[in-house]
Amino acid sequence: MFRFWSKREKMSRDHYQAEIAIEDGEEDSNIVAAQQATRRPRTMTSTAEIDSTITHPGSVRINVKGAFIVDTPEQPGTPANPSGSGGANGYHETKDIRLPNHTAVISHIAVDIGGSLAKLVYFSREAHSTEPGGRLNFQSFETDRIDDCIEFMRHLKDKQLALNGSEPGELCVMATGGGAYKFYDRIRQRLEVDVLREDEMECLIIGIDFFITEIPREVFTYSETDPMHFATPNVNIYPYMLVNIGSGVSILKVSGPRDYVRVGGTSLGGGTLWGILSLLTPAESFDEMLDMAAHGDNAKVDMLVGDIYGADYGKIGLKSTTIASSFGKVFRMKREAENEAEDMGGLSNGDDQNRRQQQSSEQASSSQTQPNRPTSSRASELARSRFSSADISRSLLYAISNNIGQISYLQSQVHGLSNIYFGGSFIRGHPQTMNTLSYAIKFWSKGEKQAYFLRHEGYLGSVGAFLKHQPRNWGRRGSFEAAP
Question: Are strands 194-197 and 419-423 parallel, antiparallel or unpaired?
Fold first, then answer.
């Protein structure tokens, strides 16, 4: 979906257009063949590269000759946090976008403030380098800690001259997302700068158009059996569907540059996972929940097809490992725990008299009438011992991801779309999430539709807001030119 430009092609009209760098010896015929492909071809990567890419998504370098990702881990271009580190409340991404030939002053930063996370993008000159240019840096904060994000922006304002050559008073904040309205006054008062609010959906489309048309090795497919492949550039990107998974889920049909319509969504998104797991597990952050899910076994919590049939249900294409009911084993195992507690007398020493006295005491202190049953604390303790936080996390992750995947397929079927891009901070490059979404699209469409993921999936809105402050037609394809 990237356009390859020959070195003989010139810049058109009164603005520059970036060109994709073509390696020495590459023939134009190869370029034409890539453009004529009806489906996005995919290039194979090694297992080591897959693991490294997910863990360290890399950096992107953009110049007039083209763009390429620097996969070697690098330090941020500037000390991002006032304390000089990543900070306890902010998370600095390792996938900066480098602009090595950019010499003009950039006097704005962009922030996308959602219900769960605030995603920040800002420009900085290369540290300790005599070369021109700089990079776009990415930082995220929990929205509940928005004051930390604002303080970070104040730090950037104070460092404006060193960061990009502009004066602190020249800083402008491009804000999008619901928080751009909710925290508008607070940001203006704290920073004493102009805050320009941009439409959330429009910024999403500008951001994803930029990534899938401008940045090679940005878009990829994923599955467990067919490892991650980067998509080969293709000039024909429209129409496509964007499934943006944040606190909730929005599904958009994109027919052209800034030509989009929201066709659906669901309230069961990242905020749902975060909220429920906050109640059921000791995890204190979204990343901690995803880490637990990576080590869990959902088969201990979910009822599978194999639990019902004892094998695959091949007639309708269901494997024995297919989830028949999310959390379907919990009630049965809880009842087994209650029976076990009853058999044990509710107390470890089996003292029936003490058990009855304890039950009478509990019932007397309760405001509601409870049925005569074994000590609830003992039953609950036995039940909890059978489910680990990791198992619960993986089960809920699958439940929400499968739901999003099926809704996405149904919307793509209704609107006749084959290319489905998944974005948003819910994904986080998490293998189980990507595999579940990809499998759902492949299964329901019988392989006719394709799920795509992006390495900067959580920053579509903030990058879109950042680009809206760029000169007209900042990108090659004119995706960022103001609509007439």
Answer: unpaired
Tokens 């946090």: give the residue: 81
Q: Which of 89, 117, 121 is nearest to 244 (CA)?
A: 117
**What residues contact 155, with CB distance under 8 A and at least 6 apart?**
81, 82
Residue 422 vs residues 12, 436, 471: alpha-carbon distances, Å = 33, 12, 28
Quick one: pLDDT band at residue 424, thresholds 50, 70, 90? very high
CA diameter of the chain: 94
**CA 171 to each of CA 37, 125, 365: distance values in angstroms, whole numbers, following the listed order:** 44, 15, 62
Asked if 480 and 470 count as a contact pair (C-beta separation under 8 A), the reply is yes
The pair of structure tokens assigned to 92 is 């600095």
Task: Give φ, ψ of 43 to 5 degrees.
Answer: -105, 135
Looking at the predicted structure, is the pLDDT value of residue 161 above 50? yes
Bridge partner list, 251: 243, 264
Give the C-alpha separation, 85 to 162, whole Å: 18
Q: How many CB atoms lie within 10 A of CB 70?
A: 14
Indicate the DSSP class of residue 79. -
Q: Which residue has the tokens 């189980």?
A: 432
Handedness of CA 411, 414, 420, 421 (dihedral sign): negative
Secondary structure letter of residue 170 according to DSSP: G
CA-closest candidate to residue 412, choices 403, 421, 423: 421
pLDDT-derived band at 407, boundaries 50, 70, 90: very high
Output the six-digit token pair for 387: 């489910």
Helix ranges (DSSP H) in 119-218: 146-158, 160-164, 179-182, 184-191, 200-214
The span from the CA of 422 to the CA of 453, in Å, is 5
Per the structure block, which two tokens stand in for 420? 């489905």
How are beta strands 259-266 and 194-197 bridged, if at all? unpaired
Q: Give the global pTM.
A: 0.73
Given a cut of 60, whether residue 473 has pLDDT beyond it is no
